[in-house]
């Protein structure tokens, strides 16, 4: 527990945020007014291409999408160490990726990880249009190696009108083959080493022609981890093939396998973290230590996906994705040993019709998504990491379906109107084989309609737009919440739902060298699901009544260029801000009224800034600063995490030999100020075991060799 000096200070946070927004707005308007004269001094070659995104199944320029979007290019992803997308994602407003130990990730989009003890929930994730989120609502994001990421788009807030259940948002991941427009052959080998015996090796190969392009990669990662009992390793193999035909058809085959092992150290109290942040959870009462319990996860994932795009007629297109997936998971914990086998399959197909009428364009989208899984879960007693006597045996049949439609109308004078609607339904059948007697529970979450309405006005002369967006979010409990680590089924857990109201302003200036986006939202959630923990560290979930989630987000990027036309030197500056005020409304579990309390697990004030400097094509440097204010850790707001400032630095140099060979050498440091902080708190943990300390100051270095014919 921290002193009052470290407690939440919302007044200062909001003042800082409002000052920042006013500063950005005044600066942007000044640049807009000066853009015509300033632009004349710049070469035509300095005019940048506007980013085209594919959110909501329609390829549109970023400026014309009436939704808050965050985009990570390949360059931004590789501005940090080459072993995780975490630091790059954490530069985006409204997004917080957490890591309790190597390979143990949580993805928080506008508070979505409030109900996620591990993994990813409340967020739908797609890889090249193929669903990564299973029918149980969980996503094994850690099955992807860093080399599997080409670019990332994140839709923040409810997007159920097209993508189904999930109130946090949607992540659309593109592979390196999708983002590399060059059809020629290439090969890359990259090796990286760092503190805590961390080693990372990647081999990638591109080959084929414009009509048939192929890609394969292999990645190996190993780390002893910062804390005790955090050893991890991962093998990942990936293959992708894209066929293009003359009649505008494209077929994409994706095969992916990973075998991942990582130890789980458990949470610490504030006193334990202060005394020795590297320790794992010690024995407590009847429960063993993390080490003696051999707490860990051994996970294997396989997925085979096929995505097909075809033009059926004038203005009519179809995109269809099918996949098969299998997960095998072995998980010794403090109280049991769990085996999970999760085979599942799915289909997503989208029909889209585009019609130009005079000065108006109409885009109509109709689609469906279906997923089904047949899961098996067995829990045994834990005898020093090995299964003992059988405790429970469940089999689950999960079905999730979605039908959606959307109409986009692009009117003259820069107006864009959007109306979407989806119908979602999911059902789960639980078969308990042990303990006897054999029992069946059927849990149905009846049809739920999720509308979305948005309007956007573009101002062509100044290249900026404003938008308003109203959408409904709906999220049934995931399988891991209905049957959590307590092994007690809770069929009475109800779905979350609520409406999100949003206003935004975004734009470009100075030939798109200056870009910004500001947005404010309020999300009123019903039947909010809250994570609780018992004394053993096991999770269970309850409906927490209503919540009111208000937020402000801002992002500003500016590319500095010399007054001359030379491309020898350039600098890009960016800053992002997230302000949140998330509070319970009518939440009183066990007679304790928490109405008006801040929802735990969300920082009220996060400010991230960075600078990227490029000299010629041969040298670059990236500096990133992250300030995160104290996070409430329990429903009563009687405990808070630490406010912290983390600085990361990376420098690299490139050499080229002719047109075929290239070598890049780089080095970096994380947590330059050597701050003690927790990145992945366990909210509402019994005994005050909230904290999972992040690594102290640590270093890494690597090299990347490339070849193109």
SS strand fraction: over 45%
CATH structural architecture = Beta Barrel
CATH class category name: Mainly Beta
What is the number of E strands? Answer: 33
Q: Which features characterize this protein?
A:
709 residues; mainly beta; 22-stranded antiparallel barrel; disordered N terminus
Description:
This protein has helices at 10-40, 74-77, 86-89, 160-163, 176-179, 270-275, 479-482, and strands spanning 52-53, 60-61, 69-72, 95-101, 104-109, 123-127, 130-131, 151-156, 169-174, 186-194, 198-208, 212-223, 232-244, 250-263, 296-313, 316-332, 337-357, 360-383, 386-410, 415-434, 439-459, 464-475, 496-509, 514-526, 529-533, 539-543, 546-560, 569-585, 605-615, 619-628, 644-657, 661-670, 698-707. The chain is mainly beta. It has one domain (4-707): TonB-dependent receptor, beta-barrel domain (Maltoporin, Chain A, Beta Barrel). It has a 22-stranded antiparallel barrel. The chain is globular and about 70 Å long. It starts with 9 loop residues before the first helix and ends with a strand.
Gist of the model:
The chain is mostly beta strands and 709 residues long.
Give the helices and strands, then pairings.
Layout: H1 10-40, E1 52-53, E2 60-61, E3 69-72, H2 74-77, H3 86-89, E4 95-101, E5 104-109, E6 123-127, E7 130-131, E8 151-156, H4 160-163, E9 169-174, H5 176-179, E10 186-194, E11 198-208, E12 212-223, E13 232-244, E14 250-263, H6 270-275, E15 296-313, E16 316-332, E17 337-357, E18 360-383, E19 386-410, E20 415-434, E21 439-459, E22 464-475, H7 479-482, E23 496-509, E24 514-526, E25 529-533, E26 539-543, E27 546-560, E28 569-585, E29 605-615, E30 619-628, E31 644-657, E32 661-670, E33 698-707
Parallel strand pairs: 6-9
Antiparallel strand pairs: 1-2, 3-8, 4-5, 6-7, 8-9, 10-11, 10-33, 11-12, 12-13, 13-14, 14-15, 15-16, 16-17, 17-18, 18-19, 19-20, 20-21, 21-22, 22-23, 23-24, 24-27, 25-26, 27-28, 28-29, 29-30, 30-31, 31-32, 32-33
């Amino acid at each position: 527990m921290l002193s009052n000096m470290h407690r939440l200070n919302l007044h200062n946070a909001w003042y800082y945020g409002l000052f920042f927004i006013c500063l950005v707005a005044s600066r942007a308007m000044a640049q807009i007014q000066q853009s015509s004269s300033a632009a004349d001094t710049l070469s035509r070659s300095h005019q940048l291409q506007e980013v085209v995104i594919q959110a909501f199944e329609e390829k549109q320029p970023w400026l014309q999408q009436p939704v808050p979007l965050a985009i990570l290019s390949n360059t931004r992803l590789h501005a940090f160490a080459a072993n995780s997308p975490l630091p790059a994602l954490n530069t985006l407003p409204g997004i917080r990726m957490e890591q309790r130990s190597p390979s143990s990730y949580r993805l928080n989009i506008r508070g979505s990880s409030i109900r996620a003890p591990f993994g990813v929930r409340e967020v739908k994730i797609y890889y090249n249009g193929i669903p990564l989120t299973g029918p149980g609502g969980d996503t094994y994001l850690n099955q992807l190696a860093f080399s599997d990421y080409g670019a990332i788009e994140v839709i923040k807030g409810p997007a159920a009108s097209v993508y189904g259940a999930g109130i946090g948002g949607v992540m659309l991941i593109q592979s390196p083959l999708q983002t590399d427009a060059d059809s020629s052959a290439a090969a890359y080998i990259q090796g990286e080493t760092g503190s805590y015996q961390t080693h990372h090796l990647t081999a990638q190969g591109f080959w084929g022609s414009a009509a048939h392009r192929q890609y394969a990669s292999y990645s190996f990662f190993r780390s002893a981890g910062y804390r005790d009992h955090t050893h991890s390793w991962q093998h990942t193999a990936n293959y992708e093939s894209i066929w293009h035909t003359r009649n505008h058809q494209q077929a994409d085959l994706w095969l992916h396998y990973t075998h991942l092992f990582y130890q789980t150290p458990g949470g610490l109290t504030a006193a334990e973290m202060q005394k020795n942040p590297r320790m794992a959870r010690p024995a407590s009462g009847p429960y063993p230590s993390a080490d003696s319990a051999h707490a860990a996860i051994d996970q294997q994932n396989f997925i085979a996906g096929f995505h097909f795009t075809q033009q059926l007629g004038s203005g009519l297109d179809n995109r269809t994705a099918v996949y098969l997936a299998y997960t095998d998971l072995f998980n010794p914990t403090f109280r049991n040993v769990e085996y999970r086998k999760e085979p599942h399959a799915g289909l997503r197909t989208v029909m889209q019709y585009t019609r130009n009428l005079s000065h108006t364009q109409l885009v109509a989208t109709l689609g469906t998504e279906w997923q089904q899984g047949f899961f098996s879960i067995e829990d045994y007693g834990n005898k020093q990491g090995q299964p003992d006597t059988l405790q429970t045996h469940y089999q689950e049949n999960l079905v999730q379906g979605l039908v959606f439609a959307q109409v986009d109308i692009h009117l003259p004078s820069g107006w864009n109107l959007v109306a979407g609607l989806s119908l979602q339904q999911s059902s789960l059948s639980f078969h308990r084989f042990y303990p006897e007697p054999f029992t069946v529970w059927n849990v149905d979450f009846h049809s739920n309609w999720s509308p979305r309405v948005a309007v956007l006005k573009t101002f062509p002369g100044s290249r900026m737009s404003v938008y308003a967006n109203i959408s409904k979010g709906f999220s049934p409990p995931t399988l891991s919440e209905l049957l959590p680590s307590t092994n007690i089924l809770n069929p009475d857990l109800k779905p979350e739902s609520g409406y999100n109201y949003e206003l935004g302003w975004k734009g470009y200036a100075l030939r798109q060298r200056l870009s910004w986006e500001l947005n404010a939202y309020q999300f009123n959630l019903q039947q909010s699901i809250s994570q609780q923990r018992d004394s053993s560290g096991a999770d269970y979930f309850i409906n927490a009544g209503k919540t009111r989630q208000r937020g402000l987000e801002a992002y500003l990027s500016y590319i500095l260029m010399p007054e001359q036309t030379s491309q020898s030197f350039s600098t890009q500056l960016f800053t992002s801000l997230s302000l949140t005020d998330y509070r319970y409304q009518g939440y009183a579990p066990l007679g304790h009224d928490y109405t008006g309390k801040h929802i735990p697990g969300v920082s009220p004030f996060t400010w991230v800034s960075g600078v990227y400097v490029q000299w010629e094509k041969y040298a670059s440097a990236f500096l990133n600063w992250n300030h995160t204010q104290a996070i409430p850790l329990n429903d009563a707001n009687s405990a808070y995490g630490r406010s912290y400032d983390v600085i990361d630095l990376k420098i690299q140099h490139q050499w080229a030999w002719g047109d075929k060979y290239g070598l890049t050498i780089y080095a970096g440091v994380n947590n330059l100020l050597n701050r003690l902080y927790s990145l992945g708190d366990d909210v509402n943990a019994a005994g005050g075991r909230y904290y999972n300390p992040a690594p102290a100051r640590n270093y890494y270095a690597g090299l990347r060799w490339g070849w193109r014919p």
